[in-house]
Amino acid sequence: MRTFSNPWGGRLAWRRAAGAAARAALCAAWLLGFALTSPAQGDAGAARPYGPREKDVRRAEKVLAKLRLLEEAAGEDARAFRGVAAKLYPGLFVAVAELREGDLKTDLDTAAFLYAEVGRAWAGAGEAAADCGRERPDIYRPLCLGLRGGTRRQLLAAKARLHTRWAAAVVKTYKGEADAATSRALSEMQAARGNDSIIAARVVETLTPLEGLANASPVHSPYQEQRAASKVSFDRLDAEFAGALDTAGALLSWMPRGPAFYRLTRARRSYSDGLFWYRKVHQSKKMVVSASAFVPDPLKELGLDAERVGHAVANNWRAAARYTRTAEQSLSLAARQ
């Protein structure tokens, strides 16, 4: 996509950067104060249906064997790890997807994702020191601190090992092979799942107000009747959406890859995509002209019609609200069970 010169771009960019920095600081402070129950404080005796099916256990054992290959390779060099990963992905994700929803699938899915991130970290900033202060306090921050100055890549691998260990504990329990270590792992997982629900509820609380700001009717209508307008000013909507999306993104990074995570991630992405194009529509209506430069219409440059883009914005925001409500209903149902 082409970029365009703006005679006031420096000032606008500075203001947006300052706003983003302020939101990041507030988000960091909020996250640091987030109260979760530590695994040691969790109620190990609380009832929780681990209950995988026999075929799920058989499939899980095959996935666990592959995860252990990745664990071994993660302790070597980038070339060795990529060689193993190339043989296992994307088939590993496919194998996990075939499992029934539950704790077993959640931890295997999360571990598979984290090992994929280990591979990407080798090509990026994976050797940078891990930022323990922004990690989830009940399970990930202790791992981070235990690395004693470890890298981001090492922390990703440690997280993957944790979720692999929990999945293995579910399999052992099903097969009647549980020991003291297995019981401890299940207690840790159980406490973490309770906290997962707390985090998911906070994401719902963060995203829900956005529906009230957006003018996205829940009833479908022709695009000519829809407008990419909000119930508040552009500046207010832009700021409140950006702040909520930052906070929701930080919280989602704490969640394992279970049903609530995927619903809320889709909600956040739909709000974010809608905001991206809403900004384009706003720019299209507020073309900036000065004596020294002309900023072209961003939609016409892309060959897009503002009315149709506005319709797409409304559709994105309706979908986001629907995903958020579905996640909230699922959390309420789980709490009653």
Describe what this molecule looks like in 3D:
By secondary structure, the protein is mainly alpha-helical. It has two domains: 140 residues, no CATH class; 135 residues. The protein is 68% helix and 0% strand. Helix 2 runs parallel beside helix 5 and helix 5 packs antiparallel against helix 7. It is globular, with a radius of gyration of 23 Å. It starts with 8 loop residues before the first helix and ends with a helix.
List the helices and strands and how they pair.
Blueprint: H1 9-32, H2 54-74, H3 78-88, H4 91-97, H5 103-123, H6 140-146, H7 152-174, H8 180-213, H9 234-252, H10 259-285, H11 298-301, H12 306-336
What's this, in brief?
The chain is mostly helical and 337 residues long. 68% of the residues lie in helices and 0% in strands.
Instruction: Write the H/E string, N to C.
Output: HHHHHHHHHHHH
Radius of gyration: 23 Å
Beginning-to-end CA distance, first to last residue:
49 Å
Number of strands: 0
**In one word, what is the shape?**
globular
Uncertain segments: 1-18, 20-25, 42-49, 218-226
Estimate the strand proportion.
Answer: under 5%
